[in-house]
Design goal:
Blueprint (H helix, E strand, L loop, with lengths): L5 H21 L7 E5 L2 E4 H17 L3 E5 L3 E3 L3 E12 L1 H5 L6 E8 L2 E9 L4 E6 L4 E3 L2 E2 L12 E4 L9 H14 L2 E3 L4 H9 L5 E5 L3 H13 L3 E3 L7 H4 L1 E5 L3 H9 L3
Parallel strand pairs: 3-5, 11-12, 11-13
Antiparallel strand pairs: 1-2, 3-4, 5-6, 6-7, 7-8, 8-9, 9-10, 13-15, 14-15
Helix pairs in contact: 1-2, 5-6
Catalytic activity: a myo-inositol phosphate + H2O = myo-inositol + phosphate
Protein name: Inositol-1-monophosphatase
Cofactor: Mg(2+)
């Protein structure tokens, strides 16, 4: 069983409280007031309410910490060496279409390094947690990345650039290479859960470009604590700030990286 630190308890209280509102609103989609931020980028009342709850709960418990949140942006606290990185609703498009695959993602960054992360899918009641050096868990069951070593038997997750984002041709080239050598590719629609699934061994690897820190901060720690490797697509060590991410089990990471490399 995972050892719950005081820090993790703070994060779990905030996430569970915010999740109640998301579950309620998910059940009443027709009543949601939805505004449009940009092409294929929607924000709902549910999203904003969840962020407000998370911010209030985290600030109450750790009043000096700074924030980086998807909707309200960056906010320095008295302690700028510690920062909450928060996505109140990862998988907004799934949520708004009634697809029960979305999550709350919260990570704590200390001096530039992610030291704790929580990803929660409230519909499946799957709670993924990780603290640096203490392993990764889902609902208190320890996670390990898969042990697959053959590309032909491997399943990968990815994110597809949507309307308003560039890189469509580049992605299609990557997809063609991976499709030709593997047992399949999945686009499930929430980066945090893609990374959680790598950590759980459900998929053998995941790649995406154009990510924000709140999309992947908690998931990066989960994969590392489950024994996986996480880099940029070209093998650099700081995917959180580069927005380019390749995560996989140790055997598959270099193979997937070679597949995705530009010719």
């Amino acid at each position: 069983m995972a050892i719950r630190s005081a820090l993790m308890n703070v994060m779990l209280i905030a996430v569970k409280k915010a999740a109640k509102g998301l579950v309620r609103d998910f059940g009443e989609l027709e009543n949601l007031q939805v505004s449009r931020k940009g092409p294929s980028d929607f924000v709902s009342n549910a999203d904003l309410k969840a962020e407000k709850i998370l911010k209030a709960e985290l600030r109450k418990a750790r009043p000096a910490y700074s924030f980086l949140m998807e909707e309200s942006g960056a906010e320095d606290g008295a302690d700028t060496s510690r920062r909450w990185i928060v996505d109140p609703l990862d998988g907004t498009t799934n949520f708004l279409h009634g697809i029960p695959h979305f999550a709350i993602s919260v990570a704590l960054e200390e001096k530039g390094e992610i030291v704790a992360g929580v990803i929660y899918n409230p519909i499946l009641d799957e709670l993924y947690t990780a603290e640096k050096g203490n392993g990764a868990f889902v609902n208190d069951r320890r996670l390990r990345v898969s042990g697959r070593r053959d590309l032909a038997e491997s399943l990968f997750a990815t994110g597809i650039p949507f309307q308003g984002k560039g890189g469509h041709a580049r992605f299609l080239g990557q997809l063609a290479k991976v499709m030709a050598k593997t047992s399949g590719v999945r686009r499930i629609g929430a980066a945090s859960l893609d990374l959680a699934y790598v950590a759980a061994g459900r998929v053998d690897g995941y790649w995406e470009e154009g990510l924000h820190p709140w999309d992947c901060a908690a998931g990066i720690l989960l994969v590392k604590e489950a024994g996986g490797y996480v880099t940029t697509l070209d093998g650099k060590p700081d995917p959180l700030r580069q927005g380019s991410l390749l995560a996989a089990n140790p055997l598959m990471h270099p193979l997937l990286g070679e597949l995705l490399a530009e010719e």
